[in-house]
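User: Just a sanity check before I run the rest of the batch. Below are the structure tokens for the first item. I only need the designed sequence back.
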């Protein structure tokens, strides 16, 4: 069964991870721009990073494992708190959105829910709305329900297109907040976020419409095979294969198909 993992930070991964992911069924992945584990202090560092994930990483995915690699570009919330630098970065975000493998805006959202984070979140939601682009929204690690609530309020207040937004990193504590919207609901199968069995329990309760699984696959303990493993667990639990396919392939496909640059052939 083919898989699209719509949230992988492959820049922090080895070539072998691409190969293992491909062998497990991942034909296509989306790499959102995010924090690199250490705060950047120069706007130029962002532009080099954007170039790296757009160019080198997309090429490496194809060269090492024939994986279709796409990117979303955005200023993540932690670094939005360096206001001067953040303004410089935001000014140049639109030019990256025109690049070939770029299929949306993200990750944007909240970390500590500060005024500067809210400013950057609103600015980038606006940029995405004006360009009809998909958006990946990062929900905070600390006090996640309150942060998610604030994210939903802003999305509703701005009146941006909810069908083009994934609210990501949901847990059992945020699903009711996210499910109030027409946004897509992402689960990051990751130690400390949500385990696959708990996420599958939620899908059994809430259904599979608009539900998306991803691995994050970043530099911390995480698993680039988290989505294939969840697929296997769903099959082991006796799920209908069409329903499994909907979660691991059709839903992310349908979401990113909204981007003019997404050319993966289903
Ligand atoms: Zn991420």
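Assistant: Here's the designed sequence for the first item:
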């Amino acid at each position: 069964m083919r898989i699209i993992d719509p949230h992988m930070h492959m820049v922090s991964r080895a070539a072998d991870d691409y190969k293992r992911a491909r062998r497990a069924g991942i034909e296509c992945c989306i790499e959102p721009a995010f924090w690199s584990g250490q705060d950047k202090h120069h706007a130029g560092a962002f532009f080099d990073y954007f170039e790296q994930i757009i160019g080198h990483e997309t090429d490496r995915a194809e060269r090492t494992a024939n994986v279709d690699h796409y990117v979303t570009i955005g200023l993540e919330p932690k670094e939005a708190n360096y206001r001067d630098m953040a303004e410089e970065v935001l000014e140049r975000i639109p030019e990256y959105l025109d690049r070939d493998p770029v299929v949306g805006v993200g990750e944007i959202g909240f970390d500590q829910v500060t005024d500067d984070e809210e400013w950057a979140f609103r600015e980038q939601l606006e940029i995405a709305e004006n360009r009809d682009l998909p958006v990946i929204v990062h929900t905070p690690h600390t006090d996640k329900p309150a942060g998610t609530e604030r994210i939903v309020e802003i999305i509703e207040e701005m009146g941006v297109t909810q069908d083009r937004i994934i609210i990501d990193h949901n847990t059992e504590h945020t699903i009711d907040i996210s499910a109030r919207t027409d946004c897509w609901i992402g689960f990051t199968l990751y130690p400390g976020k949500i385990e696959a069995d708990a996420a599958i329990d939620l899908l059994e309760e809430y259904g599979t419409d608009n539900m998306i699984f991803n691995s994050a696959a970043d530099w911390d303990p995480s698993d680039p095979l988290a989505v294939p493993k969840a697929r296997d667990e769903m099959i082991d639990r006796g799920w209908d294969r069409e329903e499994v396919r909907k979660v691991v392939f059709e839903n992310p496909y349908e979401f990113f198909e909204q981007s003019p640059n997404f050319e993966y052939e289903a």
